[in-house]
Every structure is written in C-alpha cells, then in structure tokens.
Specification:
41% strand, globular, 12 strands, five-stranded antiparallel β-sheet, mainly beta, RmlC_Cupin_sf
Length: 158
C-alpha cells in the first residue's frame, strides 16, 4: 500500500483530560483541513462488520471514530490523480484519535474491530440529498478494489 492518496488529509486529534472526563475537538472552522459544513452524523459498526465501499462526486467526507476502534481503508479511483489506484489503511479510534478528510472520487469504508461497538462521527461538506444522493457504492468484496477486509467466508456487509 502507498503511504498517501492525493488530497487525503489527516489531523491528529488532541484529547484534553481532566478530573471530570475529557474533551476532544474534532473539526473547527479555522482548521486548515476545514472546507465547509454540510451536516454531522454518527453511525456505528459492530465488531467485525464492514461498511464499504462508497465514494462521492461532490462532497468531501471528514470522519473519526470516537468510541471503540475501526479499520478504515481508502482507494483512489480518480483516473486523473497522481495516486490513481493507491490504497491507504488506518486504525482509528480511542487508541489513535485522528480525523480523516477524504476528497471526492476516493472510495472509502470501515470495519469495526475489537470487542466494542465502534462509533463513527462524520462531518461531510454537503448535507445528504435524499432525492439525488451523492453516493456511489461497490460491495466490500468487489474485484475492482484490491483490498481484503478479512471477512469470514460467506459473510458480506456493505
């Protein structure tokens, strides 16, 4: 796997603990990584469950795992990109708090790892359009992306 995909940005998240608990800023409007605000949503993945693959033509996705751990994979499907067909893999969550910014045209997905349900917070640059979704999908075991999610035989998520 290549170490980078053109346009993908990573922001190390700072956890600030005190006697009451902790605070972690995820994305600020004055961050270099910030483009614009669309919406904020939370989704989960049970341990071993894969939610993949999809990409967007218009929006940039910004996401992190705030509880548990996830394996995140990215694949550059942009034919005009200098990193065309590059793959990236991250382990994101409580043990590695990072924000991943994924530009349009880059497939992405994630798998819940560990024993706990993983909570994934996403801050895309555009709100979800229910009438015309900017979402294009492939199954997790597609032959178009050379990546193995490690699913048990006969088990398929998406």
């Amino acid at each position: 796997m290549k170490n980078s995909i053109d346009g993908v940005k990573i922001k190390k998240l700072n956890v600030i603990p005190d006697e009451r608990g902790w605070l972690m800023e995820i994305l600020r409007c004055d961050d270099e990584i910030f483009e614009q605000f669309g919406q904020v949503y939370c989704t989960t993945a049970y341990s071993g469950v894969v939610k993949a693959w999809h990409y967007h033509k218009k929006q940039t996705d910004n996401f992190t795992c705030v509880h548990g751990m996830m394996k995140v994979a990215l694949y550059d499907a942009r034919e005009d990109s200098p990193t065309y067909k590059a793959l990236m893999e991250f382990f994101v969550g409580e043990k590695n708090p990072i924000l991943i910014s994924v530009p349009p045209g880059v497939y992405h997905g994630f798998k819940g790892i560990g024993t706990e349900t993983a909570f994934f917070v996403s801050i895309p640059t555009l709100p979800y359009n229910y009438k015309e979704p900017d979402e294009f999908r492939l199954p997790p075991d597609t032959a178009e992306i050379p990546y193995d999610w490690g699913l048990a035989p006969g088990l398929r998520h998406g």
